[in-house]
Amino acid sequence: MPPERSQSHPHSPLPGTVKPKRFRPRLHYELLVCGVSGHELVGTDAADLRPQDHVLAVDAEGVRWHRCLRCDSWLPLPRPAAPTRETLPGRDELELPLRGRPPRDHIVLRAIAIDRALHFVVLGLLGLAILVFASSQAQLRDTFYRVAADLSGGPVQQDKVGLVGEVNKLFSLKSSTLHWVAAGVIGYAVLEGVEAIGLWWQKRWAEYLTLIATALFIPLEVYEIVHKLSPLKIIALIVNIAVVLYLLFAKRLFGIRGGVAAEHAQREHDTGWQALERATPWLAHPEPAALPSTGGRG
User: Fold this and answer.
1) Phi and psi dihedrals of 17, rounded to 5?
2) Residue 61 forms beta bridges with which residues?
3) DSSP for residue 57
4) At what angle do helices 29-37 and 101-135 cross, to 10 degrees?
5) Contact status, residue 123 vs residue 292, Cβ threshold 8 Å
6) Looking at residue 28, what is its pLDDT?
7) What pLDDT score does 12 carry?
8) With left for phi above 0 and alpha for psi between -120 and 50, is residue 229 left, alpha or beta?
9) What is the C-alpha to C-alpha distance for residues 250 and 253, in angstroms, rounded to an integer?
10) pLDDT of 4
11) pLDDT tens, 147-158?
């Protein structure tokens, strides 16, 4: 093993070596990303390893171990039969993948973006349907009453309850009212679309926009649940509350938990070569480490 030791943080515990004081389930998002897109390995085509390369790959007892730069898994691979380069590229030539909290934010924000994109599609189609209904309201009313009369065997009562009564209420609305409703629905769809685009690219303004828009509709969702309970409404409410709490506390909006400065400081701590060295056994641990294992983050 390489003899180098880290002078900063010499007693930093390695991932998974310290038992937590209380049970806290934790998803390792780096492993999720590696499971989908594969490990980030360097030097699989290099003929030799230098001492400064031991953060990325090591030769031990005739086996070459390569380290995933994202999830810290060590993988034994055969030496290249026909190497294309003598040594590993320098640090200035490598672009490190996201580690720590950034992969979590990347995955969660894109999941919210997909949810908002679905809202955009559904609301957009609903708004267009309302516009079509408003433009053909008279023809649709005549057709509906004729079909309903044929099915019931007599004239349709205007105050009839049930599905026919609900449709009667729609036909009683003015065309101008339907146009205003359609405009509101389409406007909300555009808002959801803007949120989806901004969150997909992890824009800070999109996080604020999503937080405010989602929080404003939570009281309305509670009102609807109180007056007409349904499982879908409860699920939607839980999801929206989770989105608000995540954006507010995990993304540190409105200055909470240090605000954007703390957000940037955390990102700097979790990424870069210093973060990689802190998770390197023979640099982070005061004692020489054993051979790297195939396990990922603890």
Assistant:
1) -95, -15
2) none
3) E
4) 70
5) no
6) 82
7) 56
8) beta
9) 8
10) 42
11) 666 665 555 555
Q: Alpha helix (H) ranges present in 201-252?
A: 204-227, 231-245
pLDDT tens digit sequence for 116-140: 999 999 999 999 988 988 888 777 7
User: CA-to-CA distance for 44 and 59, rounded, in angstroms?
Assistant: 12
- Residue 41 or residue 160, greater confidence: 41
Burial 81-109 (b: 16+ CB within 10 A, else e): eeeeeeebeeeeeeeebbbbbbbbbebbb
Token pair, residue 53, equals: 């390369």
CB 89 within 8 A of CB 56: no
Using alpha carbons, select from 73, 72, 82 the residue that is nearest to residue 44. Answer: 82
Could you tell me if 108 and 210 are in contact, meaning their C-beta atoms sit under 8 angstroms apart? no
Tokens of residue 199, six digits:
């969150």
Q: What is the 3-state secondary structure (H, E, C) of 38-54?
A: CCCCCCCCECCCCHHHC
pLDDT per residue as tens digits for the range 191-223: 999 999 999 999 999 999 999 999 999 999 999
Give me the residue label for tokens 């109180």: 226
